[in-house]
Design goal:
The chain is α+β, with helices and mostly antiparallel strands and about 450 residues long. The protein has 10 helices and 20 strands. The strands form 4 sheets. Strands 4, 5, 7, 8, 10 and 11 form a 6-stranded antiparallel beta sheet that branches. The chain has a 5-stranded antiparallel beta sheet with strand order 1-2-3-9-6. Helix 5 crosses helix 8. The protein starts with a helix and ends with a helix. The relative contact order is 0.10.
């Protein structure tokens, strides 16, 4: 009787161990949250005697609206991190990156994945033919309206054997097909790339053997580099493209530039030589230059009615309401002086930017509003203006100075000029339609062109 019980117990234990191994082989137990479902999968159900490499993958399904990140995520986010230190019989694990897509998070350009992604993983076995125990700690950031780090652990046991998991293998093979080929592939190639860190600008020339229908160029200069949305100009019947990026942030010594170029199902990766200077793009032609001037003028007109600029103009209108004793000619002269104040500030700003650029610095629009000191000074000035308007305090000047200011007020031009300059200072963080192209071109152009556009 005891022998029979012992045999039953051993049989039950063997059955349980066989069931556990079968459940673990090919796919781990899934990690499930409100935002993602994640599994560790392998194409092999076992470790063959001659299997030095195992094809694996991290398969992630994302809830609607949620996204995760590529190896170079952009200004926001970080890529998936895997820690394999708790694994047994594992010599190395190489995470690979399918071609990503562009998306915006918090109005910032980012690169990553949505809906579903499988990250292929190349596992090197230390002892082929022996049991492989895979344990990885995963740190995966997902973002929608907010960002949430998903921290979890996945485990998978592969016993000695030669069986294949067809479902997992199909997922891994599909993900591997999405890996960008290194160098020209699928008819995609790079004619050249120009990287100017001083001007904070990247220009790329793309060539294709067929018309480009869904071109995407994704730059990678490491985790600390962020780029603007691309500016794409197609030529040669759509078989060539000029793609430009503003470099929003970059380390002092960034790594080698890599570019992933996709068009529909085609994907290729390049490490271009950026020491050469590309010929002037389409915007450098005379006709296009005139068009940029037109865009700048239209954008400037529209800017006056934007919510962040229109209230500033009330400063001038308030002064007009107090000018009942002035002639029509004096009022017109005041408006002209105000306009000259605006122009003087803009040209002064252009001169500063040109000087910075000539000195090898990087320039961008509204850079003074990135200075905490400047922000504090402007906030203090505006607060004082508001307090004075509400009658919280008054500044009493000597009578002689009041008389001089009164006489100057009747002439009005110096005060009107200062009003225009102040309005321009307060309005520089604002933008409007058509201005993006014009300002970007101005910051990368010659000094005369920059002055004209400003």
């Amino acid at each position: 009787m005891m022998t029979l019980v012992r045999q039953l117990l051993f049989g039950l234990a063997a059955l349980l161990l066989t069931g556990i191994s079968a459940a673990q082989a090919g796919s781990s137990v899934a990690y499930v949250s409100e935002r993602i479902t994640a599994r560790l999968i392998t194409a092999e159900n076992g470790v063959a005697p001659d299997a030095g490499v195992i094809s694996a993958g991290l398969h992630v399904t994302l809830a609607p609206g949620w996204k995760t990140y590529w190896r170079a995520p952009g200004a926001v986010g970080y890529p998936v991190e895997l820690d394999w230190s708790a694994s047994t019989n594992l010599a190395d694990a190489e995470l690979q990156w399918p071609a990503p897509t562009r998306f915006e998070a918090f109005d910032i350009e980012n690169y990553g994945y949505e809906t579903e992604v499988t990250f292929p993983i190349r596992l090197t076995v230390a002892e082929p033919g022996e049991t492989l125990i895979l344990t990885t700690s995963v740190n995966l950031l997902v973002c929608a309206e907010l960002c949430v780090p998903e921290l979890f652990e996945l485990s998978l046991l592969l016993p000695p054997g030669t069986a294949i998991d067809r479902d997992a293998g199909a997922l891994i093979a599909d993900a591997a097909a999405r890996l960008p080929a290194i160098g020209p592939a699928g008819g995609l190639d790079i004619d050249g790339a120009s990287l100017d860190l001083a001007a904070a600008r990247l220009e790329v020339s793309v060539a294709s053997d067929t018309a480009l229908t869904a071109l995407s160029v994704i730059p990678d200069m490491g985790l600390d580099t962020a780029f603007s949305a691309p500016e794409v100009t197609l030529t040669a019947g759509g078989t060539k493209a000029r793609v430009g990026f503003d470099i929003l942030s970059a380390p002092e010594d960034p790594p080698q530039l890599r570019l992933v170029v996709t068009d529909g199902g085609r994907a290729a990766e390049f490490a271009p030589d950026t020491s050469v200077t590309l010929p002037a793009g389409p915007l450098a032609a005379g006709q296009s230059l005139a068009w940029v001037f037109v865009l700048a003028f239209i954008g400037g007109v529209i800017l006056n009615v934007m919510p962040c600029v229109l209230p500033v103009l009330s400063i001038k209108f308030a002064s007009v309401l107090k000018a009942a004793d002035q002639t029509r000619a004096q009022v017109r002269a005041g408006f002209i002086a105000t306009a000259l104040g605006v122009l003087a500030f803009m040209w002064a700003l252009a001169a500063v930017l040109i000087a910075i650029r000539a000195g090898g610095g990087a320039v961008g629009w509204g850079i003074q509003f990135q200075s905490p000191v400047f922000l504090a000074i402007m906030a203090g000035i505006v607060t004082l203006f508001a307090a004075n308007c509400f009658g919280l305090f008054e500044i009493t000047l000597p009578q002689s100075l009041n008389t001089k200011m009164s006489n100057a007020g009747r002439q009005g031009l110096a005060g009107d000029f200062a009003t225009g300059a102040l309005a321009a200072v307060l309005a520089t963080p604002c933008s409007a339609p058509f201005l993006g192209t014009a300002v970007t071109f101005a910051l990368a152009s010659s000094a005369p062109q920059t002055v004209i556009i400003f």
